[in-house]
Write a structure and sequence with these properties.
Elements (H helix, E strand, L loop, with lengths): L1 H6 L2 E3 L5 E3 L5 H10 L4 E2 L6 E2 L2 H12 L4 E2 L6 E2 L2 H12 L4 E2 L6 E2 L2 H12 L4 E2 L6 E2 L2 H12 L4 E2 L6 E2 L2 H11 L6 E2 L6 E2 L10 E2 L6 E2 L4 H4 L8 E2 L6 E2 L2 H12 L4 E2 L6 E2 L2 H12 L4 E2 L6 E2 L2 H8 L4 E2 L6 E2 L2 H12 L4 E2 L6 E2 L2 H12 L4 E2 L6 E2 L2 H12 L4 E2 L6 E2 L2 H14 L2
Subcellular location: Nucleus
Keywords: DNA-binding, Metal-binding, Nucleus, Repeat, Transcription, Transcription regulation, Zinc, Zinc-finger
GO molecular function, one term: RNA polymerase II cis-regulatory region sequence-specific DNA binding
Length: about 425
């Protein structure tokens, strides 16, 4: 009973923690949350806590004690639970699995955050403009726009930014001509290296070294891909990659947009799509100031195409585009229609083809109700309503709504040249 608890004697531990001689039940400790009872007091600052474990954790802030040490990298922690979580970085363990799409996570908080993609829940709302977010960190970052906060300051010129990524990108402007990190494969130079951390783990097959042991790294070699698709025979290094791939065959699109209801097979594609509703264009060209919703569009705008085909030397701004292109050389067609057995080299071609069987036209114009089988066709069509002309002739500056019109126009310049 509570009267018995009150009569219990306390003892002093070697950590200075006042604790009960007899252990309290979890229920009793939990009830204190509702009652506001905080019997555990810190002798250093008089702060009180409802649970002894919370006091113990707090006292670490005074003593600096971090008794739980990682045997892999030597990093120390004040709590054993934090060490257990940290060790998943080294082991690659992902115990928290999404029941909707099968994607796995190392931390429960990441799973909870991810599940909002399926539910459409956006619990973190901006009090200034009403915009909602799935993550509190995204809200904190967003609110800096209203407050004018720019906590990330360049040490060279004093310019400030509201995002750390923007500061990193800006610092590259100072490092022009001072690019100390050079790629050994292609000779391209960069302002910083992602390989500066120790890489003690190496692959027995190819001797490639890694900073941590994770499932994806252990399966870096093409031969080690244990998860095979029953439809097309394609293999993957992770079960989550196979689950994602199989949606091409099943047509399952578990990631729904809360604004327009459009579905996606990959969560990253939903995130990218949602920027079109929010008007979010975080990628800015340092040369002309033009902004983009996708990093690849910025690369394309800048003329950067780092992925080159070894067969024909054609270059691409995305590695996935190179992989798709290489199938034109190999003749590989891994995406097969389950209705007519026709095969395709790209998943998007299969999805487009499947529309001929289903008659589905999921992309509807909000201005005139016209429907399309592909989002790209809808985007092109909407230029009729918006008057947007993104394709500009470099010779005369004339703009066009469609790339085909620009190509046709450019022929007039070629014909005029001697």
């Amino acid at each position: 009973t509570m009267s018995d608890l009150k009569n219990m004697r306390f003892k002093k531990t070697n950590l200075g923690l006042s604790s009960f001689l007899s252990p309290l039940s979890h229920l009793t400790e939990h009830q204190r949350v509702h009652q506001g009872v905080k019997p555990y007091k810190c002798t250093n600052c008089n702060k009180s806590f409802s649970q002894s474990s919370h006091l113990l954790r707090h006292q670490g802030t005074h003593t600096g004690e971090r008794p739980y040490k990682c045997p892999d990298c030597g990093k120390s922690f004040s709590q054993n639970s934090n060490l257990v979580q940290h060790q998943r970085i080294h082991t690659g363990e992902r115990p928290y699995k999404c029941g909707e799409c099968g994607k796995s996570f190392s931390w429960s908080s990441n799973l909870i955050e991810h599940q909002r993609v399926h539910t459409g829940e956006r619990p973190d709302k901006c009090p200034d403009c009403g915009k909602s977010f799935t993550r509190s960190s995204a809200l904190i970052q967003h609110r800096r726009i209203h407050k004018g906060l720019r906590p990330y300051k360049c040490t060279q010129c004093g310019k400030s930014f509201n995002k750390s990524s923007h500061l990193i990108r800006h610092q590259g402007t100072h490092a022009a001509g001072e690019l100390p990190c050079t790629c050994t494969s292609c000779g391209k130079s960069f302002t910083r290296s992602i390989q500066q951390r120790p890489r003690p783990h190496h692959c027995a097959e190819c001797e490639t070294r890694f900073s941590r042991i994770a499932g994806s790294q252990l399966r870096a070699d093409v031969a080690v891909k244990p998860y095979k698709c029953g439809e097309c025979g394609r293999s993957f290094g992770r079960s989550s990659y196979l689950v994602q791939h199989q949606r091409i065959h099943t047509g399952n699109r578990p990631y729904k947009c809360g604004d327009c209801g459009k579905g996606f097979g990959v969560s990253a594609h939903l995130t990218r799509h949602q920027r079109s509703h929010a008007g979010d264009r975080p990628y800015r060209c340092p040369q002309c100031g033009k902004t983009f919703g996708e990093s690849t569009k910025l690369l394309s705008h800048a003329g950067e195409r780092p992925y080159q085909c070894p067969d024909c030397e054609k270059s691409f701004c995305k590695s996935s585009h190179l992989v798709s292109h290489q199938r034109t050389h190999t003749g590989e067609r891994p995406y097969r229609c389950t209705i007519c057995d026709k095969s395709f080299c790209q998943s998007s071609h299969l999805i487009r083809h499947q529309g001929t069987h289903t008659g589905e036209r999921p992309y509807k114009c909000s201005n005139c109700e016209k429907s399309f089988t592909q989002s790209s066709n809808l985007a092109q069509h909407q230029r009729i309503h918006t008057g947007e002309r993104p394709y500009q002739c470099t010779d005369c500056g004339k703009s066009f709504s469609w790339s085909s019109n620009l190509i046709e126009h450019q022929r007039t310049h070629l014909a005029q040249k001697p």
